[in-house]
Specification:
Shape: globular
Helix content: over 70%
Strand content: under 5%
Radius of gyration: 20 Å
Order of helices and strands: HHHHHHHHHHH
Length: about 280
């Protein structure tokens, strides 16, 4: 199949490879845009296999780059829900059409964006009220508040995001969407944003999450014919582009402000979800 691709198709595939690299080290939502572009060039089956191999190439660099920044405790707690979601996704692929699958994922992503934004707005209002109350208390009580106390502005995980229900919902949806369309990135992005991770912790936890999930998916993808010799050849051609863009993404992440990073992730999630609703 590869020799029959046009020059335009090759250019788009290299853009896909670049997006896969950037998604692994800087902007996770870019991977879903890559999925949409790849399906415009390759048939659905071949597209899924090609994207998986490109993402796994980026995974290797991402886990090395952020090997000290991942929240492995959180990842362990997500495992049961994610495996359940992967199993449900595999079953769903046998029962549903491509169009219904695509639209369902788009709706899920937009709902998660809305829920996350509402949670963050509520959390922001609570922090404002806490800060006001703190100023009022310190005017009469000079005892300082512990910086790591639950509910403090610097706490890494909000109570809502750290709940068992949130892990079940987001973990299950991440496993489901990554199995059916390699589109789990936006789901995990919304969850880790709700956890309020700093940029590097966000990227490190995301990198290790998908490295492990993609390893689990690989045998199923090979047995289903999604990964074959042709797709391995394509992935080998695209690997240098994935690696260079991943390195560039790592440099970008090192200089990215948290206040800029979070709106970009939300915007990319929305942009990647809208085409799925067609």
């Amino acid at each position: 199949m590869l020799p029959t691709l046009t020059a335009t198709a090759w250019i788009l595939l290299m853009v896909v490879a670049a997006l896969c690299g950037i998604a692994k080290t800087a902007l996770p939502g870019a991977a879903t845009i890559a999925v949409a572009l790849c399906t415009a060039v390759l048939p659905a089956k071949e597209s899924t296999g090609a994207i998986l191999l490109m993402l796994m190439t980026g995974d290797l660099l991402a886990v090395w780059s952020y090997r000290r920044d991942a929240d492995f405790h959180m990842l362990r707690r997500l495992v049961p829900a994610v495996l359940t979601g992967v199993g449900a996704g595999a079953l769903f692929l046998h029962l549903a059409s491509n169009d219904s699958t695509r639209r369902l994922i788009g709706v899920i992503l937009l709902l998660l964006v809305a829920i996350t934004l509402l949670q963050r707005r509520s959390a922001g209002r609570s922090r404002t009220e806490d800060a006001t109350g703190e100023r009022q208390r310190t005017s009469t009580d000079p005892t300082p508040r512990a910086s790591g106390a639950p509910g403090a502005p610097g706490a890494p995980v909000t109570p809502a995001a750290g709940s068992r229900l949130a892990r079940l919902v987001y973990g299950g949806l991440a496993g489901f969407t990554t199995m059916v369309a390699n589109a789990g990135g936006p789901v995990t992005s919304m969850y880790f944003l709700a956890c309020r991770y700093p940029v590097k912790a966000f990227l490190g936890t995301t990198a290790w999450f998908f490295f492990l999930v993609n390893l689990v998916k690989l045998p199923f993808s090979v047995s289903a014919g999604l990964v074959n010799a042709t797709m391995l050849s394509l992935a080998a051609v695209a690997a240098p582009v994935v690696i260079v863009s991943a390195l560039a993404g790592r440099r970008l992440a090192e200089h990215m402000d948290q206040r800029v990073f979070e709106p970009i992730i939300v915007a990319l999630t929305i942009v990647s979800a809208l085409p799925l609703l067609r």
